[in-house]
Amino acid sequence: MECSDNMSKQNLTQFDKTIDFLSVSAAIAVVYLHVNACFWDFDPEARYWMTANIIETVFYWAVPIFFMISGITLIPSIERNGTKRFLRNRVIKVFFPYIFWSILGIYYQSVVLEWFPVSEISFSKIVNGLINGNLVSVYWFFIPYFTICITVPLFSNISRASRTYIFEYLAILGFLLNVLVVFICNTFFPAIKITQLLPVAANYYLYFIIGYLFSDYNPNKRIRIILYILGAIGFLMHLIPTYYLSVNANHIVDTFKGYYNLPCYLQSVAVFILIRQIYYCFEIRKNRIQLAIIKFFEWFRPYTFGIYLLHQLVLLGLLHFMDISQTSIWWRIFGPWVIIFISIALINLLRKIWIFKPLLP
Question: What predicted TM-score, i.e. pTM, was given to this entire model?
């Protein structure tokens, strides 16, 4: 794709629709991952596990791209609004909804799904679940997100040029020490036990840093091709060894899995660049189909956070009340869209009730 080779370097926050493309794509991918949960019910003799491994790998970039989007949006938000207003907005728009839907979620699992009696829900269990993000299993994402939010102000008062230099430095060291060295040791020298060597650029924070850097950087065609090739290598490193190692071991082998692992970083960065490039091409070469896709993403964008909050509850409810085979390939391909549109309908309905409107921003 050559659509953006002549574009000047601009802060990606100026391209709200580009961020919309990334956010909507990641939201859809997250639902596909959770509908494909049969991946974790390993059965080497069942045909479903091969396709489950493919779907798992194809959409594995969803969570990393959410953190990369945070790298694009959070610092500019502080620069526009100031630290106090930024933190207040995060509390109102993200923290309060997290608290509410987490508590509602655990009662939903008890009363509606009948997983455990209500008597087992204690104050300490709720507090512990909120701290660890596991009252609703998919809400774990909020904990590292909150950690990033409260540390972002540390960078907001640094000049833009200095901040970019610092982030470039952290990205290079973080990738070399926390990703590449750890991957080499875990894969080829398992006797050497190494975790992250540079905590400030470890785990999801590295995705945040990478996202910020790409907000100011639009790679040329040659660099993009290199990133796409590395992304394809990361995809194959995740897909093929996971399948054969797991089948041979008769359990899921996660040597090549994990959001902090080399294959995921390679794949996620490539998908991030690819989605952004697709949007640039759509904007330049608008035809009827591309315009329809752009309008769909614009329509979808206001629902992404609500879908993340509700989709797991909808999924569990459908599985509880309906006779659905979780291993059916048809369910795993089309089921996510059923859940997405049910979630959107619920969001529209609940937003009309004043008490729910701020809880589904």
Answer: 0.92
